[in-house]
């Protein structure tokens, strides 16, 4: 069943993009990496890109749990869409464009680079479940917690940033008909299966809803 759904997704996505959002600990990178592998695509994480750029430029922009300012996001992250080695592949994105207003730039750059946004997955996890997962990961040390994950106040700031700055982004995608909500309060394998099923269903009823902004 899931193999047939993935085959449908590969044909539907082409060289387009699927952008995955969710609270911290919701499984964005876990789902994104596996989905990119199954689709024969490439995975881009704004968090990974930003942390690499912070190290390269010796800046600490997000260490307190805050989102990267939009001007740096445009400078550091968006150029990845146009990399030659990504041209012929579908892209699975992890939270690319998390601050309200950035989504328009993401849509435009993605389309112009040949990777149009085909769907935006919202991994649905309550804040209580998010904190519970964080506490379990910290106790088990099974996530390789970053410094900002290890500090409770900083982690709470990341939750607040999502609520205040990223939820409006998702509302915009919903208005464009691109949002695909998926429940994420399950095992990793089940969440991945939920995402594939939701995207396969969405692909049957969707069309290219974003042509010009």
List low-confidence stretches: 208-213
Q: Count the DSSP helices.
A: 9
Strand arrangement, major sheet: 2-3-1-4-5
* Mean pLDDT rating: 92
**Biggest beta sheet summary:** 5 strands, parallel
Structural class: alpha/beta
Strand count: 5
Shape: globular
Distance between the termini: 37 Å
Cα gyration radius (Å):
16 Å
Into which percentage range does the β-strand content fall?
Answer: 5-15%
Gist?
The protein has helices at 2-13, 28-39, 46-57, 70-76, 102-112, 127-140, 147-150, 152-175, 188-205; strands at 17-22, 42-45, 91-94, 117-124, 179-183. It is an alpha/beta fold and 213 residues long.
Write a structural description.
This protein is of the alpha/beta class and 213 residues long. The chain has 9 helices and 5 strands, in the order H-E-H-E-H-H-E-H-E-H-H-H-E-H.
Task: Present the secondary structure layout.
Elements: H1 2-13, E1 17-22, H2 28-39, E2 42-45, H3 46-57, H4 70-76, E3 91-94, H5 102-112, E4 117-124, H6 127-140, H7 147-150, H8 152-175, E5 179-183, H9 188-205
Parallel strand pairs: 1-3, 1-4, 2-3, 4-5
What key phrases describe this protein's structure?
213 residues; alpha/beta; five-stranded parallel sheet; 9 helices; 5 strands; 13% strand; globular
């Amino acid at each position: 069943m899931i193999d047939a759904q993935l085959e449908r997704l590969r044909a539907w996505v082409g060289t387009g993009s699927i952008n995955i959002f969710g609270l911290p600990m919701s499984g964005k990178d876990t789902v994104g990496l596996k989905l990119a592998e199954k689709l024969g695509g490439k995975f881009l994480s704004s968090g990974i890109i930003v942390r690499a750029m912070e190290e390269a430029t010796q800046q600490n922009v997000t260490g307190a749990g805050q989102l990267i300012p939009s001007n740096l996001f445009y400078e550091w992250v968006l150029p990845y869409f146009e990399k030659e080695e990504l041209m012929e592949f579908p892209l699975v994105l992890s939270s690319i464009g998390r601050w309200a207003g950035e989504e328009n730039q993401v849509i435009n750059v993605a389309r112009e680079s040949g990777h149009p946004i085909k769907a935006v997955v919202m991994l649905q996890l309550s804040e209580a479940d998010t904190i519970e997962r964080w506490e379990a990961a910290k106790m088990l040390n099974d996530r390789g917690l970053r410094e900002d994950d290890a500090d409770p106040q900083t982690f709470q700031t990341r939750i607040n940033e999502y609520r205040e700055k990223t939820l409006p982004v998702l509302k915009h995608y919903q208005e464009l008909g691109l949002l695909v909500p998926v429940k994420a309060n399950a095992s990793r394998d089940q969440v991945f299966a939920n995402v594939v099923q939701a995207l396969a269903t969405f692909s049957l009823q969707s069309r290219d809803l974003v042509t010009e902004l």
